[in-house]
């Protein structure tokens, strides 16, 4: 019973990402990390796009408060989301 009590399971960062006894991550663990990374990247791109669209909706007085001209706001607002 002492031998079984000393075996510890590794704590996974993501579900399905448990380390193998050799210390390597399995395919599912790597896939979970890649998909998570991709989702975060897409989230950042969408947040950037929302910010640029918000610039286009601001009034001249709001733009003046943050120190941006209407021309600069328009130039930034029409940029592609990946730029």
The tally of helices reads 4
Distance between the termini: 60 Å
Strand content: under 5%
Helix content: 55-70%
Structural classification: mainly alpha
Describe this structure in words.
The protein has helices spanning 2-6, 27-57, 60-66, 70-77. With 83 residues, the chain is mainly α. The radius of gyration is 24 Å and the shape is rod-shaped. 1% of the residues are buried. The mean pLDDT is 81. Residues 47-74 form the YjiS-like domain. This is DUF1127 domain-containing protein. It comes from Mesorhizobium huakuii. It holds the Pfam family YjiS-like.
Task: For this entry, give a set of tags.
83 residues, 61% helix, DUF1127 domain-containing protein
Produce the secondary structure layout:
Layout (H helix, E strand, L loop, with lengths): L1 H5 L20 H31 L2 H7 L3 H8 L6
Helix pairs in contact: 2-4
Organism: Mesorhizobium huakuii
Pfam families: YjiS-like
Protein name: DUF1127 domain-containing protein
What's the quick description here?
The protein is mostly helical. It is built from 4 helices and no strands.
């Amino acid at each position: 019973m002492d031998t079984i009590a000393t075996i510890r399971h590794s704590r996974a960062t993501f579900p399905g990402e448990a380390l193998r006894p050799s210390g390597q991550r399995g395919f599912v663990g790597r896939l979970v990390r890649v998909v998570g990374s991709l989702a975060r990247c897409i989230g950042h791109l969408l947040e950037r796009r929302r910010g640029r669209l918000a610039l286009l909706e601001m009034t001249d007085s709001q733009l003046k408060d943050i120190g941006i001209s209407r021309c600069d706001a328009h130039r930034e607002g029409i940029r592609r989301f990946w730029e």
